[in-house]
Every structure is written in structure tokens, then in C-alpha cells.
């Protein structure tokens, strides 16, 4: 039987290992300045994480995902002439989540974009990316540089339509397999088509730029931004809307969607509740099983909080990380409805907006359900959510019938899980520059 000291030491070592897995997870004591790391600070954090090799503690089989990153920059790897292998770089757009399968050296990783098909390629490490970007900018003349700064990415006007078409083409009927859902005979019933559709339209990065900067391989739209941030292997689902949590209409609609997912996917989905703490280091106790009702006056608009004044409990974040690493999908209920806050949350959720566009319809539903005593609060929140651009959400459910929203959400989740679990494919010659180094290292050791 282990002594008290040994037990404490084992717990401490386990805590260090869990912390190193996601060093960008903020603790309660972390200040606002450290939540917005500069590029160099973010690079140092990821280098520290990679050097610690926390994936070795999990004893992963060969070919497994070591860790994931979410890119805040774009990289046109297919036309990078400095890549060790011709045409071996991976094309990455800002907002993409990249699965890393191998750490090749201090400059290159092997990775695959989630939702970008099965093709794997070479990904520059964050420090190498910054070096490439600085070198590229230094070689651009003054007038050309001004044109680059003035360059504005043309937004695809049909993006929402294309994503919706791709979603249903990917298999709105992919759940036809014992869950009681009746599908059309000509609809795809397997997930093989998902990868091919996602290669042209990435369903999981709706706000991605449609073009790179002209003549550039690296694309950084915001100075002092960390190129990559560590991300969960499976991003959690967070439902937002149609109005404020803790009120009957919103709660019932979200419970219906969550119940459908848990029925369709079974143990692959795990439902947890998460609380944020605005400008406080003390977790507020919950007095009832349901989310709390508004603490502000019902005649005033609901306050829109910013990401900088929200602190998340590390234990909750570690729980999401553990669920994700076990290959399951976390469905997280949070007490925050503001998309900008959730977008900056360290667990990087997939935001699903349950939308009721017509306020008159929402008003009628609230009155029918007996929730009219907080009518103004719910209407104000609904109006604020409806004013957020659809591209700020990963999926918008705006059907008038709940069963259609359930099917669309299930198809989205199925496509996402298929993209996450899709094995990488690449030419074996892609790793030839590093295979020689491995052979020489083995011979020197012998």
C-alpha cells in the first residue's frame, strides 16, 4: 500500500502531465495579459508541450493522432518551394484544425486538416512558420507590401448555401443504421462520401478565408497572433439559442436536440455541464438543477461579455480533454450565450446556433409555454444572437420543425466524427528526408 507521500507525488506527476497536454488552458489565477499571448509566447508554449511528449504516456499505437492544433494563420503548402519535399506541404487556412501524426524535427510536422480530406502533408512548426513569414515579408518591396496590406479577401457569397449542400451531400442519411430514422433509398448511407465532399468545402471552418495573399505562401492577417493553438482531439459541441439559458423554450429545444444525439450515437456522446466565472476566482454554487435565471433587470438588454473577463475551471477543461482523448464527443452546456466568448474559450467548441428568425414566433412560443414573466430578457437575447453573422457559427439550425433540426445536427456530427477518425494518406516518399536521419541515428547507437 502506497504511503501518503507516494500518493501525493503520483497525483502531482499526473497533474503535471495533464497540464503539459494543454498548456494554453487558463487557470483561475492567470491574468488577462497571459490569456492573450504574443506570437513568441504562444510559440514557446507549444515548443514546451512538444518537448515534453505527453502522448508517450498514453502508449498510442502507430499512426495515432499525437495532438491537434488550431491555426490562426494560412499556409499554402502546395506551392512552398522551401518545403523539403516538392508539393509536400499541407494547405492550411486560418481556423483549420490540424491533426499532427508525427513530429519530424524542429521545423516540420506531419499532419492532416480535419474536414480537408484524408491527404496528409508537411506542416511547419510555429517557430519555423514565423521565420518563413518574416523572410517572405522582408523580400517584398515597399509598394507591393502596401498592396498586400490593402488586400482584402473576397468572401464567398454562396458559402452558407455551399456548406448546407455539402452537409446533405455528405450524408444527411448517414445515420440510417438502427436509430429509427427513415431515409431515402438513393441517399448515401455510408460515411465514405464524407471525406470526398469535405475536400472541397470544409464544414468545420465556415469563416475561413477563400484566398491567400497574392504571391505569398504564408498569410498572417493579425500581427502578434500566435500561429497555432493546441486544440482537443475531438472538439465539443455547444448549443446556443434560440434565446437565453434557464428559460423553458430554449431549454426544451436544446434538450430535444441533445436527446436525439445521445439516442443516435449512444455512448459516443458524453453530456457535461460547464460554468464560467466572470472576473471571479471563486466558483459560484448552483442552487438548483436547472440553469439560473437572470440576475439582472429584465427590462435591460442581456450583457454581452468579452472573452477577457471569463475564467474557466481547469478541472472542467481537463474533463473535456479526457473525454476527447478517449474518442468520444463532449456535448457541453455552458452558462454563456455570447459567441465571441465561446469562440475564445480554450476548449474550442463547435458552436451550433438554434435559430428562430422571427421574433413573433418566439414570442408566441414563450407565451404558450408559460415563460412570459421574463419575456423582455428572452427577446433581447434572441435579437442579439440573431444579429450575429451565421459564419460565426459552425452550424445554424433554422428549421421550423424540430425533427428536421435534429436530423441536420446528427448529419453534421456524423460528418465531423468521420472527418476526425479518417486515417491519413500520403506518399511514403514524403518522409524520405527524415528516414535517412533515423537510419543514421540507429546505426550510431549500435
* Strand segment count: 15
Taking all Cα atoms into account, the compactness measure Rg is: 23 Å
Averaged pLDDT? 74
pLDDT < 50 stretches: 1-14, 24-36, 143-161, 171-200, 279-309, 441-446
- What percent strand? 5-15%
Read across the widest sheet, the strand sequence of neighbours is: 6-5-4-1-8
Which H/E pattern describes the elements?
A: HHHEEEEEEHHHHEEEHEEEHEHEHHEHH
* Helix and strand composition category: alpha/beta
Number of helices: 14
Distance between the termini: 41 Å
Instruction: Tell me about the largest β-sheet.
Output: 5 strands, antiparallel
Q: What is the 3D form?
A: elongated
Helix content: 25-40%
Describe the SSE topology.
Elements (H helix, E strand, L loop, with lengths): L3 H18 L10 H4 L3 H14 L14 E5 L2 E3 L14 E2 L4 E7 L4 E6 L7 E4 L1 H13 L3 H9 L8 H13 L20 H7 L19 E2 L8 E4 L5 E4 L7 H18 L3 E6 L1 E3 L31 E3 L1 H12 L3 E6 L4 H5 L6 E5 L4 H10 L6 H12 L8 E3 L4 H20 L10 H14 L1
Parallel strand pairs: 9-13, 9-14, 10-13, 14-15
Antiparallel strand pairs: 1-4, 1-8, 2-3, 2-7, 4-5, 5-6, 11-12
Helix pairs in contact: 6-7, 6-13, 8-13, 11-12
Q: How would you sum up this structure, described in words?
A:
Helix content is 38%, strand content 14%. Helix 6 (159-171) crosses helix 13 (402-421) and helix 11 runs antiparallel to helix 12 (375-386). It has a 5-stranded antiparallel sheet with strand order 6-5-4-1-8. It is built from 14 helices and 15 strands. With 446 residues, it is of the alpha/beta class. The model is unreliable at 1-14, 24-36, 143-161, 171-200, 279-309 and 441-446 (pLDDT under 50). It has helices at 4-21, 32-35, 39-52, 126-138, 142-150, 159-171, 192-198, 248-265, 314-325, 339-343, 359-368, 375-386, 402-421, 432-445; strands spanning 67-71, 74-76, 91-92, 97-103, 108-113, 121-124, 218-219, 228-231, 237-240, 269-274, 276-278, 310-312, 329-334, 350-354, 395-397.
